[in-house]
Inverse folding.
């Protein structure tokens, strides 16, 4: 059974850090690009970052560039999102997603290019 399970969300103060994890099962992780999206209340889901199959290339949305880092451990079947210098506007549900086969990790990656999603993990940045 194919699954993506996010963890690591929570409440953090502005300027703090969190590390999200996405544990995958039911498919071979190194065959797919992977991505993180987020959705804040009342807003559309937006791409945060993506990473190529073997981790050679990463792309970031402009609003997280320099603060967030995506990585993957194919041997451990896990994708990570390290989030530093968090801001209140980073508050959202964060989703891990698998890119459909032949969909590349580009700066223009969209939800329509993903074929499987996790249920999300809530990140709240507040003092």
């Amino acid at each position: 059974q194919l699954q993506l399970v996010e963890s690591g969300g929570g409440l953090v103060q502005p300027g703090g850090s969190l590390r999200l994890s996405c544990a995958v099962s039911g498919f071979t992780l190194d065959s797919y690009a992977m991505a993180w999206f987020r959705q804040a209340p009342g807003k559309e889901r937006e791409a945060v970052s993506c990473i190529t199959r073997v981790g050679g290339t990463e792309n970031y949305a402009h609003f997280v560039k320099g603060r967030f880092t995506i990585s993957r451990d194919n041997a451990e079947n896990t994708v990570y999102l390290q989030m530093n210098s968090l801001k209140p506007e980073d508050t959202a549900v964060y989703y891990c997603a698998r890119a459909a086969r032949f969909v590349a990790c580009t700066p223009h990656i969209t939800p329509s290019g993903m074929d499987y999603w996790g249920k999300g993990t809530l990140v709240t940045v507040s003092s």
Observations:
- The longest strand covers residues 18-25.
- The mean pLDDT is 94.
- DSSP finds no helices and eleven strands in the chain.
